[in-house]
Write a structure and sequence with these properties.
By secondary structure, the chain is α/β, with parallel strands linked by helices. It has 15 helices and 14 strands.
């Protein structure tokens, strides 16, 4: 393990390198551009390729193709570019293509404020494309976690043969902090499950007991159909109720079956908490400082930080504290709040938005939650 000092964007790039990234396609967009710039220098040194595409649509389609060629692949963007990727993300879901997509959130709608932060893309990450699906999504709150959760995103993508989203933001992207980088063998890096023979590869959507099918690698002599339409296990178009229900249910259940692996959270001071503050990403940094300040003043305030935004482990969230009052603090108009209100249905749940183009201060957090204390 070696120690360095770097930014959140560079930490994402280093995490991808540690996880085995071999192909990156992207298009420059503030505040994510440093990821591509850093990888353009570093990835070729690790036997990989970086391509600047004509736009974000081309970028995500390129990494889908690279993944089917057997390479771990990633792209990074911000809100406007993320929107352009929606159709191809649906393609990655139904073809069960393991890719990592980083969205470094900035203010919107439309082009918004390119150089400022936000957490307003949370529900976009959940309901990105049309149709029924569930895409794992991680939200780091520090430079170290930007690195760690990028590795986790790649591992989740490979383990479950699914696209995964890393939802960073402009604050984390440009924050500089110490970073511990793992040497080979110091951290788990999950590889791809491939068919045992060419006959098995003819059924690219036939699952094993974990509901995840082995994934053929194109160019290795496999005869494989990659179909974006509702398909059977062979890959042929199958517009029948039985095939449709089986496919959609499996796409979702293969994720939910591994929720204990996917889902992560952090709790502080929850044992005696009468009020629980819930947050995530960069905003959680200020919420935690506000929590510490309240504790010093004698208030029984607890802190819950979501590292995984989708899927949520509802049982783990519900049981983390017996607090009767839940306050959700987000740098948006209130998005995760709706799930917290549903999960803590027999308690008082309040939304305290702190809309800010900068990292909200602990004082702004305190002012936002004061009406509910």
């Amino acid at each position: 393990m070696r120690k360095t000092f770097t930014s959140g964007n560079m930490a994402v790039a280093e995490g991808a390198l540690t996880a085995g990234l071999k192909f990156y396609a992207g298009y420059p967009i503030t505040p994510s551009s440093e990821i591509m710039e850093y990888l353009a220098e570093k990835l070729p040194q690790h036997g990989g390729v970086v391509i600047q595409m004509e736009d974000e649509i081309g970028s995500i389609n390129a990494i889908i193709g690279a993944s089917w060629a057997g390479f771990k692949a990633m792209t990074a963007t911000s809100g406007p570019g993320f929107s352009l990727m929606a159709e191809a993300m649906g393609l990655a879901v139904i073809t069960e293509t393991p890719i990592v997509v980083v969205n470094v959130m900035r203010a919107g709608p439309s082009t918004g404020v390119p150089t400022k932060t936000s957490q307003s893309d949370v529900l976009q990450a959940r309901w990105f494309a049309h149709g029924d699906y569930l895409i794992p999504c991680y939200a780091p709150w520090s430079v170290q976690e930007a690195y760690d959760l990028t590795i986790k995103a790649f591992n989740t993508a490979e383990l479950l043969r699914t696209p995964v989203i890393l939802l960073s933001d402009a604050v984390i992207a440009h924050l500089w902090e110490p970073l511990m980088i793992y040497e080979p063998g110091e951290v788990e890096v999950i590889g791809r499950k491939i068919p045992i023979d060419k006959q098995r590869a003819k059924f690219p959507y036939k699952p094993d007991s974990d509901l995840v099918p082995p994934m053929p690698i194109l160019g290795h002599g496999y005869k494989t159909i990659i179909e974006s339409l509702t398909h059977n296990e062979r890959g042929f178009y199958a517009p029948m109720n039985t095939e449709y229900k089986a496919l959609v249910k499996r796409l979702i259940l293969k994720i939910l079956k591994r929720i204990n692996y996917i889902y992560e959270q952090e709790t502080r001071y929850c044992d005696d908490a009468e009020v629980l503050l819930v947050s995530y990403g960069s905003t959680a940094r200020s919420v935690y400082l506000a929590t510490v300040d309240y504790r010093r003043k004698g208030l029984k305030i607890g802190f819950l930080r979501l590292k995984t935004l989708w899927p949520l482990n509802e049982e783990k969230i519900l049981n983390c504290s017996r607090a009767r009052k839940i306050i959700v603090i987000e740098n948006n108009t209130g998005k995760i709040y709706f799930d917290m209100d549903r999960i803590f249905k027999d308690r008082d749940v309040y939304s305290s938005p702190v809309l800010s183009l900068e990292l909200p201060t602990p004082r702004e957090v305190s002012e936002a939650i004061e009406p509910w204390l």
